[in-house]
User: Fold Glutaminase from Kribbella amoyensis.
Amino acid sequence: MAEFDVEGMFRSLDTDRANVVWKWKLLEELRQAGLRADDPRVQRAVTWTLDAGAPFEPGQPEWLDRDQFAAVVREPVIARALQGDLAVSPAEFAELSRGVEQIYADLRDERSGEVAQYIPTLRDADPERFGIAICTADGQVFQVGDATTAFSVQSTSKPFSYAMALEQQGAPEVHRWIGQEQSGGTFNDPRLSLDANGKPQNPMINAGAMATLALVEPDADVSERFAKVEQTWTRMMGEAPGFDHRTFLAERDTGHGNRGLANLMAAKEMLNVDPRDRDAPQKTAEFYFAVCSLEVDATRLAAAGATLANGGVSPYTGERVFSAETAGRVLSVMGHSGMYNDSGKFADAVGLPAKSGVSGNVMMVVPDQRLAVVTFSPRLDEAGNSVRGVEVCQRLVNDFGLHPFKSLGAERGVEMSDAARRAFDGVSRPGTGSTGRYQAPAPGAKTATRAGELQL
Amino acid sequence: MAEFDVEGMFRSLDTDRANVVWKWKLLEELRQAGLRADDPRVQRAVTWTLDAGAPFEPGQPEWLDRDQFAAVVREPVIARALQGDLAVSPAEFAELSRGVEQIYADLRDERSGEVAQYIPTLRDADPERFGIAICTADGQVFQVGDATTAFSVQSTSKPFSYAMALEQQGAPEVHRWIGQEQSGGTFNDPRLSLDANGKPQNPMINAGAMATLALVEPDADVSERFAKVEQTWTRMMGEAPGFDHRTFLAERDTGHGNRGLANLMAAKEMLNVDPRDRDAPQKTAEFYFAVCSLEVDATRLAAAGATLANGGVSPYTGERVFSAETAGRVLSVMGHSGMYNDSGKFADAVGLPAKSGVSGNVMMVVPDQRLAVVTFSPRLDEAGNSVRGVEVCQRLVNDFGLHPFKSLGAERGVEMSDAARRAFDGVSRPGTGSTGRYQAPAPGAKTATRAGELQL
Amino acid sequence: MAEFDVEGMFRSLDTDRANVVWKWKLLEELRQAGLRADDPRVQRAVTWTLDAGAPFEPGQPEWLDRDQFAAVVREPVIARALQGDLAVSPAEFAELSRGVEQIYADLRDERSGEVAQYIPTLRDADPERFGIAICTADGQVFQVGDATTAFSVQSTSKPFSYAMALEQQGAPEVHRWIGQEQSGGTFNDPRLSLDANGKPQNPMINAGAMATLALVEPDADVSERFAKVEQTWTRMMGEAPGFDHRTFLAERDTGHGNRGLANLMAAKEMLNVDPRDRDAPQKTAEFYFAVCSLEVDATRLAAAGATLANGGVSPYTGERVFSAETAGRVLSVMGHSGMYNDSGKFADAVGLPAKSGVSGNVMMVVPDQRLAVVTFSPRLDEAGNSVRGVEVCQRLVNDFGLHPFKSLGAERGVEMSDAARRAFDGVSRPGTGSTGRYQAPAPGAKTATRAGELQL
Amino acid sequence: MAEFDVEGMFRSLDTDRANVVWKWKLLEELRQAGLRADDPRVQRAVTWTLDAGAPFEPGQPEWLDRDQFAAVVREPVIARALQGDLAVSPAEFAELSRGVEQIYADLRDERSGEVAQYIPTLRDADPERFGIAICTADGQVFQVGDATTAFSVQSTSKPFSYAMALEQQGAPEVHRWIGQEQSGGTFNDPRLSLDANGKPQNPMINAGAMATLALVEPDADVSERFAKVEQTWTRMMGEAPGFDHRTFLAERDTGHGNRGLANLMAAKEMLNVDPRDRDAPQKTAEFYFAVCSLEVDATRLAAAGATLANGGVSPYTGERVFSAETAGRVLSVMGHSGMYNDSGKFADAVGLPAKSGVSGNVMMVVPDQRLAVVTFSPRLDEAGNSVRGVEVCQRLVNDFGLHPFKSLGAERGVEMSDAARRAFDGVSRPGTGSTGRYQAPAPGAKTATRAGELQL
Assistant:
């Protein structure tokens, strides 16, 4: 921070040469860098500083004097934003924002798929809702559409429950109870969810998610356990999740399949519960229903995703919520089992770790750019993934060249003629100018050719 | 190439000021950049140039004069190697080589696992064999141990057969016949290999690999089909594969399980064969056995892997063998289903696309560094993967920080105290110096902290 | 009854010519016909008659005068017993009794198998216990060994629960909820118990038994429902079953697998319960645990079995408990699915409908002889059937020629020589005396050749 | 035979008092007893006798003199027929024939179901064909409709192949290779046909039938093996089966599923073939296709069924083809697994051992009456059983009270009033006339109440 030229920055923002920086001017500058005016770090730094000074006259624009400005930029993210030194540069962030806006516009007319039917709250969801939010490792946020419409997090809670279990029990213990392989079946198929020993195949299927939660604060009572989960979400998102009690009640009352799986696991002693408590499996199922009923919106969920993209560190608080190792494990399993029964198809088309929930959310993490994208749109495809959500992921990857495997050497290579191939194979001899036969690629040609590829 | 200063380079290599560049000196320089003396491109350029001049006296060191040197550096890879402009820089290549050498030394005493038993040629393999080879997108090669010991390619043929099918039929047609999801079962379990319609779950299991080969040159006769497969391997590796006929015979004679799967697929019309030819399923199985019996070594197989790392372009010839899209698809399926029944575990521990074969080979692709690593060591673990092979992948990823998800933000984050958290949550107020409560990370801190992380 | 010569019978029993029939003499006569002194019909008839007369002097043998005797033989079963006109004749009953006694003696040293381990009451069962009881359609009883030792009925409750559901709902409704085919799996395998729609395969597996009980008195409250089941058992057995509350508690507390299955069925709407009651599946499981905990002994359970052998009519009361159609359906499913995973093996070896429970009981019905045999011996084989229980069935069938398919034409047939066969085929001609070639069986030769075959 | 009064019989048939018995008169007498004029035993005895005498004048009715008659009745079946001493008495046979004729008439308009589609010969079968044949243990035959229309035996060969394997290898060896339990799946489902060790579940599913045939004459060459099978059929039926070569070719060319199963079994070493012969599994499949293509008609197949009903003794030759033990085992497995996926349903509705084939045949054995009934009608239900075939079985069982479990005690039993029940339970006391409370059944009331019940 020592090198940050506070005075120079003050002057460059004091465009009126009034020896003050207008608050609106500062906020606009931050907004262009991706920091929202209601970013908790911005709010705190600016508000507290202004509150500490003399009160402003009503109706007058607020401003910061030199000392106040110096106090404000002690907030590191503000200093870095003003220097263009955040996870994504202002120019890139602008480009990304425009791209997402275009994708949003293009997909508004996409109306295929059907809203989940199995409980009233999901069935009643407005199918037209559509929002996208991006959050970077530094808490830069872009939103479009219904990005602050609340929804129950559903299965997108699974990666985070898995992270909590890993943090508390360590990976070897967790994987004594839950496998790490894709199930080859649908997320709730009792015949394929569990292996012959009753062990759930992985933490992203319902059985595995319940087995995971059975490892989260197992010694605490249920209200405390739920509180801990809520706190973890708060720490990731910078603000608390809500709770969709109506969804909870409906899932609890209809969740026979999940209760069934919990009991079957307990029957094989593959659920970490008190064997003497015959209600323990269904209590575990209820804990699971409660966690699925946590209420977020695209913007907040993107912050949770950004925590994973940031190696376990919350974008807003800088707090380490999970170890980098844990975040990596979570992204790995999202990579191969996050999109229900279309996980392999998604890995092919998109190639990035993602998780979807039946409320219509899809949370995708872009590790190289350290950001997460969340889409909310309730219409689901047959696999249970939001139609628009999958489409947003696909478009983003295509438009910005983000597929980790599909732009390798795209600029290279020649079609070799048969003659050339013979020559290469040593059949022809020098003097024929054969070394000039084919055009080798330009050296160092790592620059992608795709127009919109993100230069991060 | 215009900017390449031939004269300057000539002078810098003419260390004896003799107006010649010693051939050995040039080759040593290239070797340090990763190009072997028997690299076909090097051999061709140097040999042909020297052959075109006056013959050398026996026993005298060979040299290149100014014109000859200029002719040699017309070979682009030589020019780029001398400029340090290959996929991996000379310094990094040296670091990588040393690292692999160390891993090789560390794992020589690893003797757990057992050689595959089901056919004599595999059963008779020398369990002590151990070789590692690396090949980059530019054909830079590092070898240690038994890197040129021949082995049958076995299941590591599957990704390439899939690539051929994709190139010839297009992805929609291929995936009409073969799924894209992990099977949730072992690679040859008839109960889980095929879905209820008889469709194999993915191209990495035996059933899927046979269904894939049924789409490769389907209209040609079998000898021609096999020739085409051989040619594709030749194009990737810069030299032809061998053929382990003894293995072929043994697999053919004992391969009832595969013949069974082929017939079951045909019974459900999920194998692209002439329905009137009752021997078609077993012919397809034989085609599969033949492709599994192609003989390579770690070095050559690494070149095939480098073709994928290079987006489908052969490292030695610059020829485009597959489209970048195809190479990407292949890497995707390797990412989630390449390591038999431990694919999810491998995705967690290593995070990179890989494929193993029961002869004891493991081929891993490192897309970011555009290289492939192949290990050959016949002792297998319970999932059928080479024990040392998996260990080499794990060590490489750990030692060089190559896991795509596990070093994100590793340097960031603070443990937030409860007080701090309360403050952040807006409970405390300004004047408490709260902005200094936690140490934000240094801006732009993308530098990994791991000592050996590869700076590519 | 008109033809029954009361006077003649009185005289033949009045061996002392004392114009009385000694009570002990009458009881002995009945005992030889198979009626126990404590048979409720005998007790009632004799006791009431004697009670109605003048009191006997203490220490004096009791007797019946002419009128009293006439009153006693108004009880039809007594009249028929004295005439030798019960389901099994006195001679045959004696032969059968001796045969069973021999089998009992022969099998006392059989100690293979292991007592069920999953709950304490079963685990603690005395493995040496061994009792056999036979009960005919007329309530003739033969007992040997621990025939009155109490045990929980366990899975042998299933056929009777199925009968109750059939009576109350009719077969079409019952089979809308429960299948009729053998499961091909073990009795509690969640992967094979239910078909793809969640429908249990048959009423003899746990899932099917719960689905069956969900159809028994579905509108009543749980205590009433259980009372009705108890009453049905009382009606069959002539006395009430007990209740093993300790077993109930243990099964309830450990019965996660069954609770799991109940929930899975409910999840697919394949359990006849109120969909709004989220505890309904586990209440159904508890109902099932309670019915399994009904306590009987070999003798009483044989009476329940005899009710089936008697086409649904209780042997002691003559009351029709189930229709003949219902009894037939129950015997059918016992025939192919009553002996857990060895049902097919048992059908081969024994060929008669039977059901076993993990407490070590096996109840077999011999329809042609209208009797049931129950064995109690806690050591189980791997399929969960009592080792001695299966052996008793096998021996009985062998010793008395009861297998319905294995003594057909056993006395017939010749080995035809090749010459004979040629002749028969019309190759040879008359005059060769060919009609004498083989000894045709004696006409009407239905008489089995096996020594002990029961002539009933 | 000694007691047979030849002279009396001769006189009773010599109704014209001509001291001869007209041949037509004798044949008519035999026909009424169920023996056809073309019964091989009748033909042989009568023809040979007449041939041995003086030739008849053309156009004159043929007759037997006293000696000739004596010679003819040396054929035991003729003697017994004339005495009314065959498996089914003349009166009963007439009743049965009339009953079947009525069933045939009633079901002619039944046109539901669909002809098997998978190969041309089956697809082209005339769906209107409908024939019923009955054959008793003594070769009494009744036919109606298309009882001599040829069809390929298909799966109805399975019980007989099983019988041959049992005879040649013994049950323990057979069941080392093939299970005895119902599969719980469809007859050709690769996922449920084989257990985890590759062992087929029973001999009635395709996989089990192939495994069975692999045990029939395993050391002979294939032509000899097939000849032995043909001979066995000839021995049962009294005449040779045909061969539907067109069906064989079609099944061989399309039988990928069966070839697949054969290979999968071989892969697990669960097929008794030379492990060094890679074509052995498909040769086994071909052997199976050949046996399925044996051509019979309802009448001949009924004779094969009667061989089972007769404990393994051929009805026409009296030759023992299988041991009674083997015949019993075969009937047992038919009892629980003979009707494909509806075996349990059939056991409930009909309760007798039966086997069906996709050509539209159903062969049912009635052990108590020692006869077999075969229906031929090509339209199949969803389980693959002939619609009319199943219906014929059901009707026969209903009309003649043949269900082994459903008419037990049908005539017995009373509805007990609550008061009565209380009394019985000992609550009320003597003097109330309680012994008259309920009407006990008439003693010995074994007589069924159903009008048409067969009195055999």
The longest helix of chain B spans residues 90-107. Confidence is low (pLDDT under 50) at residues 426-456 of chain B. The longest strand of chain B covers residues 131-136.
